Amino acid sequence: MSYADIIEEQKAETREIIEALLEDGSDPDALYTIEHHLSADSFAELEGAAVEAFKMGFEVLEAEEFELEDGSTVICFDAVMESALDADRIDEQVDKLVKLAEKFSIDYDGWGTYFESDEEDAEEEGKLEEDD
């Protein structure tokens, strides 16, 4: 699959992920920790990409070894950025990181985030009302 195809596939997946989060009740107004996953066969292949991702404004998490289903291993790191659940903003992040992956001949393995509940806000509002 070409890197251009990966970008287009990711655009569709981004919209599906956002839709699923919102349908499950995730807070549409929250800031989300978006974790973009990059991997390669060796740390040396990843090192330059990690430095450049940092220069692009991403928080770069420590590289880890990951065992695949076939028993082989890859080295991976996450490039992290806080973002609203805005498809266009996330598309921009994906575009930058897929191009980075292409430049360093590594793999962009998609992105993920965590469910953000607005229950905490509702609880805080309830406490304020009780205090009145």
Automatic annotation (TrEMBL):
Keywords: Cytoplasm. It comes from the Bacteria. Gene3D superfamilies: RraB-like (3.30.70.970). The keyword Iron does not apply. One of its GO terms (cellular component) is cytoplasm. It is found in: Cytoplasm. One of its GO terms (molecular function) is enzyme binding. The keyword Iron-sulfur does not apply. Pfam families: RraB (PF06877). Residues 12-113 form the Regulator of ribonuclease activity B domain. Its main location: cytoplasm. HAMAP family: RraB. Interacts with the C-terminal region of Rne. Globally modulates RNA abundance by binding to RNase E (Rne) and regulating its endonucleolytic activity. Can modulate Rne action in a substrate-dependent manner by altering the composition of the degradosome. Belongs to the RraB family. This is Regulator of ribonuclease activity B. It comes from Grimontia marina. The gene is rraB.
